[in-house]
TrEMBL record:
GO biological process, any: lipid biosynthetic process
PANTHER family, sorted: DELTA(5) FATTY ACID DESATURASE C-RELATED, FATTY ACID DESATURASE 2
Residue span(s) of domain Fatty acid desaturase: 69-334
InterPro entries xrefs: FA_desaturase_dom, Fatty_acid_desaturase
Protein name: Fatty acid desaturase
One Gene Ontology term, aspect cellular component: membrane
Amino acid sequence: MAITDVGAYTHLTEADIEALGVELDAIRRDIEESLGERDAAYIRRAIIFQRALEVTGRMLIGVSRSRTGWLVGTASLAFAKCVENMEIGHNVSHGQWDWMNDPEIHSTTWEWDMVAVSAQWRYSHNYRHHMFSNVVGVDDDLGFGIMRITRDEPWQPVHLLQPLRNLLLAAIFEWGIALHGVHSERDRAEGDTARVKRERKKLIRKIARQGVKDYALFPALSGRRWRRTLAANAAANLVRNLWTYVVIFCGHFPDGAEKFTAEALDEESRAEWYLRQMLGAANIDAGPLLAFSTGNLCYQIEHHLFPDLPSNRLAEVAVRVRAVCEKYDLPYTSGSLVRQYLLTLRTIHKLALPDRFLTATSHDAPETASEQKFAWPGRSVTLGSGARCKATDCCAPERIPRGPA
């Protein structure tokens, strides 16, 4: 099942964990102290590039008479929407560029180009997801409320539809994020019905604005070619949804991205929080172009450790984080985009079935593991809550690695 004691799972002492925290704090401090004009220029160039790409795409769609021109224009528009969503909207809303004190490029003022309301997303994502990442029953992003990603969630017959739900979520991902955000605001309101109504109205206004822009205004400006523009906008939004879904899922649900029980949060120190973030995320092996296309979320481990550090610095942070993982014999989960996505699909389809059809143990499965997998007959593992687990025959001494990698 999920991890309750990160120290027991990683075989680190309290002193080791605190030392690890000191090293990670030093990485954060070094990056913060070195931020400057080079970083500010990066995000400004990214915004200029994205806007130029969008204008170019829309002009090709509206002016070109050939199918090739329409395809190139639609592809340009789709890429522009991906860049705006991930490298710009996601990262600006994380506060990665707030240190610039630019009133436009700021987490409190940026509104991204999709139906979700940025302010609602900031609470559901920046706080609820990043603070409690992969904690079962606490992190709403763990399966997004419609999929079973860990055996800690009891199987129900509705989970048989999980593969179809996964396809639907991929196609309408921006709508899932929008509803996710407003539902989090409902929970945050704690019964304040007036506030809930205000948040719902904000979402409705944002949906209306996006709908008019993509499906009424731009098609109308195209005159007799309105069908081409309408189709191009719908296709670009679909591509953006699919790409965002793939990147997010590959960073959170492949093998090696561990899950945690709520008990793991009890008296959790800053260093233990760091350790949980390192265990709960997965990276994508990427070159500069793919990294930019993912909003640098190919460095998901580093992003979860330092969510408010500028995305253009995560590549250099990754070198130091990997060295820390090697020093403390910790896993550094990374793989190609195709591999990470196939592993994620395997988990989604596998956990759609009742547990009786699964062969791996609930404590040592590819998609879910706990500290109890390091036990063997005659030995028990002490959990963070003080409870003790009796070892089972599935955990033999020869299967105990030096660390959890």
